[in-house]
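Folding Problem: From Residues to Backbone Shape
Fields: amino acid sequence; protein backbone structure tokens
RECORD BEGINS BELOW THIS LINE
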Amino acid sequence: MGREPAGASELAASLQGKGYRMRNAADLDPLLDQVGDARYVLLGEASHGTAEFYTWRTALSRRLILEKGFSFIAVEGDWPDCYRLNQFVQGRATSGRAREVLRAFERWLTWMWANEEVVLLAEWLRQHNEGRPEHRQVGLYGLDVYSLGDSLRRVADYLQHRRPSAEAAARRAFECFEPYGSTAEEYARATRWVDVSCEDEVVALLTEVRRTASPPMTEREASFDAEQNALVVKDAEHYYHTMVRGGPAAWNIRDHHMTETLDRLMQHHGTEARALVWAHNTRIGDARFTDMVEGGMVNLGHLVRTQQHDVPARSQADVPETYPSGV
């Protein structure tokens, strides 16, 4: 038997009374009390996917939506895939079931979102939204930047059907990426060795999409989706161009994109909007309180806090330990 590490007994004693067992959704009361009137609640995870954690996170999110009026859930997932799911939960996709919609999550980490727990959440959100006015429906969106090809196709489709005169900008972007098979990874490898760039084309595409005057209410949602996809294309090009060179810059591009997307979602949902964010702890903890800051890295949690009047990170000692035993 090894010796007990120095101070272990004292540490164990200090933790006594700070934990409590979670048996059902009512045991989440202390967390709801801590939320108060906060407009942003960032829910972390130490791994990308255990059924028990997904179940508890959903239970907490449901209570925050029902009791505190949260407007949407934003997750560490790709915009186009998550937007298809958003169309389902808001009743805009009239056919199919949640399980079928989630089959669209075919990229990296399919199991992260295409799982039984997310099926149950999506079905609950759709039921919750039924009969509610459009501006009061709860959404579900992706914050990430990986969907360069899919987002480019979505923008091209939008311009073809709604603004044919602007379709040339999308065609030029497609032609720029075409030598790389329209895959972001091949493009990234090419930029590592050859002085090539599609930056001008993707910036021009975003500018063209944004050139439209304020759309009528019937077009507002489609216009918002198209602009977000164009923003993804621009930031994805920058991300992949930078990623192959190493260092913290690519990480920071990704988290700045997530923060900008979150800002756009808050504006889209109005002045009273409240956001739930689901992401890994490394994204939504505060980078200023970790060794990330020594490497020149920021993260979503840091950026959101500094934008919201530099609210200091809550001490870990203030957060109760929980030991879930099932809902």
